[in-house]
């Protein structure tokens, strides 16, 4: 992995993925519009005009090709790569059907759980929770249920968070890059290749989705991205899986925190947590006057900062204790900042988002 030639290869891999996804997304704008696959604005929407959806197909296609190529280049990892690709494509397929005609929740969740079970059966569960200088804790019998909860939860959390232009694409790019960097440091090259291609595909999609968006990701993209981000650490094998899972969780903390905080607040207020709403923290920022560009940049920046700090010990083990404390501090300050910005923005606006009472 050292030297200019490998660096040039990895750079080309990323750029080709980004370019392919950009071209594919541009084509999908016309195709989905012609097929009538449009997201029509309603009282819960953050957009005001009919916009084609399904642009996430570009991310699915480019990432799938990257997985296939990785299986050819690293045949010893072929079974593991299949364990990622096949369930992820099942997620994409049911989500595309949901984009075309809404499916029952139990059908979608049933496929999510089946895909998660297949991935964990082929790759194994995360058997330990890695907490940097605080040590690693064996999950024991809880490994299977916690890994399944992580995968299904992330699949749906990512879908919940894809509500404004750019926020899902930029977060997917950060998460993919973080996984790729961690895998490269740990010597898991097939995972580095898939993570880097996924990050590139997300960047390519953003060329058409960055505010103002000309196409939306759709459930086919958001559910696929959430599932893939959750499952990629399992490619690290027993020796690297727990560290990769923790770095992924750190990179995804804004999405995890926003989803958990919103669900807990709505449950505490006796609201139907399954009913569509506009009270996620990022939605409240937009309703209070923030632009999509500003809110998406905030979430992407918070994700990137935490991931960068968490990755430091992989380059220098002496930084483990410092990086652990800085990661905790970065996330804690980030949570406080996010809540403060929502409070101050709503106070300045003089109103709150529907259902956003404290």
Rough outline: globular
The biggest beta sheet is recorded as: 2 strands, antiparallel
Q: How would you classify the quaternary structure?
A: single chain
Task: State the total count of DSSP E strands.
Answer: 4
Strand proportion, as a percent range, falls in under 5%
Summarize the structure.
The protein is mainly α. It has helices at residues 4-34, 56-73, 78-100, 105-123, 143-161, 167-186, 189-209, 218-231, 237-251, 253-268, 281-287, 292-315, 320-349; strands at residues 38-39, 51-52, 128-130, 136-138. β3 (128-130) and β4 form a beta hairpin.
Explain how this protein is built:
The protein is mostly helical. It has one domain (13-349). The chain contains 13 helices and 4 strands. It has helices spanning 4-34, 56-73, 78-100, 105-123, 143-161, 167-186, 189-209, 218-231, 237-251, 253-268, 281-287, 292-315, 320-349; strands spanning 38-39, 51-52, 128-130, 136-138. The strands form 2 sheets. It has a two-stranded antiparallel ribbon. Strands 3-4 form a two-stranded antiparallel sheet. A hairpin with a 5-residue loop joins strand 3 and strand 4 (136-138). Helix 1 packs across helix 7 and helix 6 packs antiparallel against helix 9 (237-251). The longest helix has 31 residues, at 4-34. The chain is globular and about 50 Å long. Mean pLDDT is 92; it is low at 353-358.
